[in-house]
């Protein structure tokens, strides 16, 4: 996936770096857990090395995955979007992690904001639509800032609300919540935004919707995703 020149000055092989990145981003493991797992496989690296790899290569891997998937799903993902946000504490202060997913559960965008008002919602919607176009139907909760933002954009007829209509996006928060507990919260808003963006892209790549396919199909798609990651 990544240009070989990116690994030019690293003594560790790209395969080991990709393995460490996958373990840390995809599974609810701490840096020291990844260090122990690599040690069991005969790879002696420090957890600080894994942290450096994450900061260096995580956004790079995520941007490549995102670029490919946006090109593939731009037309397919315009039927219905689901929007929601969760509270995240950063140094004791409340922030909002906003997430948009399509009808298949593909995470389209993850943005961290300090407020939950109309201006923050407008900024999130404009970023989402600039990258993915405009959906035919957008499901949200009944919070007033969504209605005010859609009214200002002239797209109030696209908004749909309902008691259980937004379960798709609410369930998409669960993998991030598991990672948040393993990382013992976040200390900066910038690191939260960085991790949320990278985590959603990598999770999209490996998420195969196993409950909706047969076992044989799931194994084929899982092997294809892992093969593409290693390349």
Automatic annotation (TrEMBL):
GO molecular function, one term: DNA binding
Xref: SUPFAM superfamilies: Ribonuclease H-like
The organism's place on the tree of life at top rank: Bacteria
Pfam family of the protein (one): DDE_Tnp_IS240
InterPro entries, per the entry: DDE_dom (IPR032874), IS_Transposase (IPR052183), RNaseH-like_sf (IPR012337), RNaseH_sf (IPR036397), Transpos_IS6 (IPR047930)
Example GO BP: transposition
Alphabetical keyword list: DNA recombination, DNA-binding, Transposition
DDE domain span: 79-208
Job description of the protein: Involved in the transposition of the insertion sequence.
Protein name (database record): Integrase core domain protein
Species of the source: Ruegeria atlantica
